[in-house]
Protein backbone atom coordinates (compact mmCIF):
# COMPACT_ATOMS: atom_id res chain seq x y z
CA UNK A 1 0.00 0.00 0.00
CA UNK A 2 1.25 3.49 -0.83
CA UNK A 3 0.25 6.44 1.34
CA UNK A 4 0.23 10.05 0.17
CA UNK A 5 -1.02 13.42 1.33
CA UNK A 6 -4.29 13.05 -0.62
CA UNK A 7 -5.28 9.67 0.85
CA UNK A 8 -6.86 8.71 4.14
CA UNK A 9 -3.40 7.81 5.44
CA UNK A 10 -0.59 10.34 5.42
CA UNK A 11 2.91 8.91 5.92
CA UNK A 12 5.84 11.13 6.94
CA UNK A 13 9.41 9.89 7.24
CA UNK A 14 12.20 11.27 9.41
CA UNK A 15 13.76 13.08 6.43
CA UNK A 16 10.64 15.26 6.27
CA UNK A 17 10.68 16.36 9.92
CA UNK A 18 11.49 19.99 10.65
CA UNK A 19 14.70 20.56 12.62
CA UNK A 20 14.14 23.13 15.39
CA UNK A 21 16.32 24.49 18.24
CA UNK A 22 15.21 23.75 21.78
CA UNK A 23 13.53 26.59 23.61
CA UNK A 24 16.40 26.61 26.15
CA UNK A 25 19.05 26.57 23.41
CA UNK A 26 20.74 23.40 24.70
CA UNK A 27 19.85 21.11 21.81
CA UNK A 28 17.46 20.59 18.92
CA UNK A 29 14.32 18.68 18.14
CA UNK A 30 12.77 17.12 15.06
CA UNK A 31 9.26 18.54 14.77
CA UNK A 32 6.96 15.81 13.44
CA UNK A 33 3.55 17.44 13.69
CA UNK A 34 2.31 20.86 14.80
CA UNK A 35 -1.24 22.18 15.11
CA UNK A 36 -1.92 25.85 15.81
CA UNK A 37 -5.07 27.96 15.97
CA UNK A 38 -6.00 31.53 16.84
CA UNK A 39 -4.90 30.94 20.44
CA UNK A 40 -1.46 29.61 19.46
CA UNK A 41 -0.03 26.10 19.68
CA UNK A 42 -2.66 23.47 20.41
CA UNK A 43 -0.57 20.31 20.14
CA UNK A 44 2.87 19.27 18.94
CA UNK A 45 4.68 15.97 18.41
CA UNK A 46 8.47 15.89 18.20
CA UNK A 47 11.49 13.60 18.49
CA UNK A 48 14.70 14.61 20.27
CA UNK A 49 18.07 13.33 21.43
CA UNK A 50 19.12 14.12 25.00
CA UNK A 51 22.90 13.97 25.34
CA UNK A 52 23.50 15.61 28.73
CA UNK A 53 21.84 16.02 32.10
CA UNK A 54 19.87 19.23 32.37
CA UNK A 55 16.65 21.12 33.02
CA UNK A 56 13.87 20.89 30.45
CA UNK A 57 12.48 23.97 28.72
CA UNK A 58 9.47 25.61 30.35
CA UNK A 59 6.23 24.90 28.46
CA UNK A 60 3.74 26.31 30.92
CA UNK A 61 0.16 25.76 29.78
CA UNK A 62 0.95 22.48 28.02
CA UNK A 63 0.63 18.89 29.22
CA UNK A 64 3.52 16.65 28.23
CA UNK A 65 3.90 12.95 27.55
CA UNK A 66 7.49 11.82 27.04
CA UNK A 67 8.25 8.37 25.62
CA UNK A 68 11.71 6.79 25.77
CA UNK A 69 12.69 5.55 22.30
CA UNK A 70 16.26 4.34 22.72
CA UNK A 71 19.24 4.41 25.08
CA UNK A 72 19.77 3.33 28.68
CA UNK A 73 17.08 5.61 30.06
CA UNK A 74 16.91 8.55 32.43
CA UNK A 75 15.47 9.82 35.68
CA UNK A 76 13.05 12.75 35.62
CA UNK A 77 12.49 14.91 38.70
CA UNK A 78 9.62 17.39 38.61
CA UNK A 79 8.82 20.33 40.85
CA UNK A 80 5.51 22.08 40.25
CA UNK A 81 4.88 25.80 40.71
CA UNK A 82 3.13 24.83 43.97
CA UNK A 83 6.25 23.04 45.18
CA UNK A 84 4.97 19.48 44.70
CA UNK A 85 7.69 16.98 43.77
CA UNK A 86 7.39 13.88 41.57
CA UNK A 87 9.77 11.52 39.80
CA UNK A 88 9.76 9.17 36.83
CA UNK A 89 12.26 6.42 36.04
CA UNK A 90 12.41 5.52 32.33
CA UNK A 91 14.48 2.38 31.73
CA UNK A 92 13.16 0.50 28.70
CA UNK A 93 12.04 1.57 25.22
CA UNK A 94 8.46 2.93 25.24
CA UNK A 95 8.50 3.67 28.98
CA UNK A 96 6.71 6.99 29.38
CA UNK A 97 6.19 9.91 31.74
CA UNK A 98 3.29 12.36 31.91
CA UNK A 99 3.78 15.76 33.54
CA UNK A 100 2.93 19.45 33.30
CA UNK A 101 5.03 21.47 30.88
CA UNK A 102 5.34 24.23 33.48
CA UNK A 103 7.05 21.93 36.00
CA UNK A 104 10.73 22.47 36.68
CA UNK A 105 11.92 19.15 35.28
CA UNK A 106 15.48 17.85 35.64
CA UNK A 107 16.66 14.97 33.45
CA UNK A 108 19.50 12.74 34.66
CA UNK A 109 20.77 10.22 32.13
CA UNK A 110 21.44 6.67 33.33
CA UNK A 111 24.29 5.83 30.97
CA UNK A 112 24.76 7.96 27.88
CA UNK A 113 22.45 9.76 25.48
CA UNK A 114 18.86 8.77 24.78
CA UNK A 115 16.19 9.55 22.21
CA UNK A 116 12.63 10.39 23.14
CA UNK A 117 9.26 11.24 21.65
CA UNK A 118 7.40 14.27 23.02
CA UNK A 119 3.66 14.84 22.79
CA UNK A 120 2.56 18.24 24.10
CA UNK A 121 -1.06 19.45 24.20
CA UNK A 122 -2.74 22.60 25.49
CA UNK A 123 -4.08 22.00 28.98
CA UNK A 124 -7.22 24.11 28.66
CA UNK A 125 -8.96 22.32 25.80
CA UNK A 126 -6.94 19.31 24.61
CA UNK A 127 -5.76 15.93 25.88
CA UNK A 128 -3.55 13.18 24.49
CA UNK A 129 -3.93 9.43 24.91
CA UNK A 130 -0.59 7.75 24.26
CA UNK A 131 -0.21 3.96 24.10
CA UNK A 132 2.96 1.88 23.83
CA UNK A 133 2.47 -0.79 21.14
CA UNK A 134 4.30 -4.13 20.94
CA UNK A 135 3.40 -6.58 18.16
CA UNK A 136 0.92 -8.14 17.96
CA UNK A 137 -1.32 -5.17 18.81
CA UNK A 138 -4.78 -4.28 17.46
CA UNK A 139 -6.71 -1.06 17.59
CA UNK A 140 -9.88 0.41 16.15
CA UNK A 141 -9.89 3.88 14.63
CA UNK A 142 -13.13 5.82 14.87
CA UNK A 143 -12.97 9.37 13.60
CA UNK A 144 -15.40 11.81 15.24
CA UNK A 145 -15.57 15.56 15.72
CA UNK A 146 -13.76 15.65 19.07
CA UNK A 147 -10.81 13.59 17.79
CA UNK A 148 -8.16 15.92 16.39
CA UNK A 149 -5.52 13.33 15.48
CA UNK A 150 -5.04 9.57 15.28
CA UNK A 151 -1.48 8.55 14.48
CA UNK A 152 1.18 5.88 14.86
CA UNK A 153 4.92 6.48 15.36
CA UNK A 154 7.17 3.56 14.39
CA UNK A 155 10.03 3.05 16.82
CA UNK A 156 11.27 0.12 14.73
CA UNK A 157 10.58 -1.04 11.20
CA UNK A 158 6.92 -2.04 11.51
CA UNK A 159 4.42 -4.06 9.51
CA UNK A 160 0.80 -2.99 9.90
CA UNK A 161 -2.29 -4.71 8.49
CA UNK A 162 -5.10 -2.32 7.52
CA UNK A 163 -8.69 -3.61 7.64
CA UNK A 164 -7.38 -7.20 7.55
CA UNK A 165 -6.70 -6.91 3.82
CA UNK A 166 -3.62 -4.80 3.10
CA UNK A 167 -0.16 -4.62 4.62
CA UNK A 168 2.16 -1.64 4.86
CA UNK A 169 5.76 -1.54 6.06
CA UNK A 170 6.75 1.60 7.99
CA UNK A 171 10.36 2.68 8.27
CA UNK A 172 11.84 3.27 11.71
CA UNK A 173 11.01 6.80 13.01
CA UNK A 174 8.20 7.31 10.49
CA UNK A 175 4.81 8.80 11.39
CA UNK A 176 1.44 7.59 10.08
CA UNK A 177 -1.48 10.05 10.30
CA UNK A 178 -4.72 8.04 10.13
CA UNK A 179 -7.67 9.96 8.69
CA UNK A 180 -10.40 7.32 8.32
CA UNK A 181 -12.20 4.68 10.35
CA UNK A 182 -10.61 1.27 10.28
CA UNK A 183 -9.02 -1.69 12.01
CA UNK A 184 -5.24 -1.73 12.27
CA UNK A 185 -3.02 -4.52 13.51
CA UNK A 186 0.68 -4.13 14.31
CA UNK A 187 2.11 -7.43 13.07
CA UNK A 188 5.82 -6.71 13.54
CA UNK A 189 7.80 -4.08 15.43
CA UNK A 190 7.09 -1.57 18.18
CA UNK A 191 5.76 1.95 18.24
CA UNK A 192 3.45 4.50 19.83
CA UNK A 193 -0.22 5.10 19.09
CA UNK A 194 -1.28 8.70 19.67
CA UNK A 195 -4.76 10.16 19.76
CA UNK A 196 -5.37 13.84 20.43
CA UNK A 197 -8.84 14.85 21.58
CA UNK A 198 -10.67 18.11 22.09
CA UNK A 199 -11.99 18.58 25.64
CA UNK A 200 -13.69 21.91 24.93
CA UNK A 201 -17.41 21.85 25.75
CA UNK A 202 -19.53 22.99 22.81
CA UNK A 203 -21.55 26.11 23.50
Blueprint (SSEs and pairs):
Elements: E1 9-12, E2 18-21, E3 28-37, E4 40-50, E5 54-55, E6 62-70, E7 74-79, E8 85-90, E9 96-100, E10 104-109, E11 114-122, E12 126-134, E13 137-141, E14 147-154, E15 158-162, E16 166-170, E17 175-178, E18 182-188, E19 190-198
Antiparallel strand pairs: 1-17, 2-3, 3-4, 4-11, 5-10, 6-9, 6-11, 7-8, 7-10, 12-19, 13-18, 14-17, 14-19, 15-16, 15-18
Pfam family, one: HutD
InterPro entries: RmlC-like_jellyroll (IPR014710), RmlC_Cupin_sf (IPR011051), Uncharacterised_HutD/Ves (IPR010282)
Protein name: HutD family protein
What does this structure look like?
The protein is mainly beta. Helices cover 0% and strands 61% of the residues. The chain has 2 domains: 77 residues, Jelly Rolls (Sandwich); 107 residues, Jelly Rolls (Sandwich). It contains no helices and 19 strands. A 6-stranded antiparallel sheet has the order 2-3-4-11-6-9, with no helix packed on it. The chain is globular. The model has no long low-confidence stretch (mean pLDDT 90).
Amino acid sequence: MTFNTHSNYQLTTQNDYKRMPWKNGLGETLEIYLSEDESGQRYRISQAAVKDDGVFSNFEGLSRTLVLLSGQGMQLSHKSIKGNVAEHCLKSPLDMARFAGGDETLATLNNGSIEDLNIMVRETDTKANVTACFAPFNWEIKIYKDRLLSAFYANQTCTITVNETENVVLEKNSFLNIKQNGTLCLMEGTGVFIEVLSTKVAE
